[in-house]
Model the fold of this input.
Amino acid sequence: MKNLQKYSNKTKAAFVLLIVMLIVLLSNFNTLQNSKKTNENINTIHKDRLVVARYIFQYGNELHSIKANTLETKLDDTQKNDKIKTSFQSIQNLDRLYLKTVLTPKEKIFFTTFQVSCSAINQESQNNNWFQVRQSCNRALQSLELLSKIQIEEGQSKLTQSNALHSGNTLLGELQIGLLVILGGCALYLLLIKKKKITIKIPESPSSN
Done:
């Protein structure tokens, strides 16, 4: 009976240990997955939002340069076309970089609208229609403004998601600490507990007098 009780305590301890270790293992796996997602969000914010925001700034500079050239009285039409052609080539180079990033469906629509305005700028400049060039520049700048807002919204969304994952990791970490404390307490209890010893008192034999 004594051996059976001893075996039962070991089985219970092993079972509790197995459950706790399984919970800790699953928590660690979930924490690793959350960390991976957080890292992906950070990379997305950098590659597809911050870098794109820089492209948008460069687009804006080229468009303002085109508008300024159309108003430059010291330049003839040929000189204006040469300068606008250079700016348009820079815009096309930026297009290739922009299209390598991940675009949302809404962003694709606005970027297509932007490219249409840029194509109009190129066509109208060849016809020396400077007023229409400026109008197309204004439309392109409006598209850039909408694209810029998307970068802010998407960046904020990824940041919110990362903060939520971080909070989840914190809770899982606290859970793991709690489970390990409980496990340590159980182990300490099993080490320190003393089983009551049953002593059988044998009566003394009657003295022979």
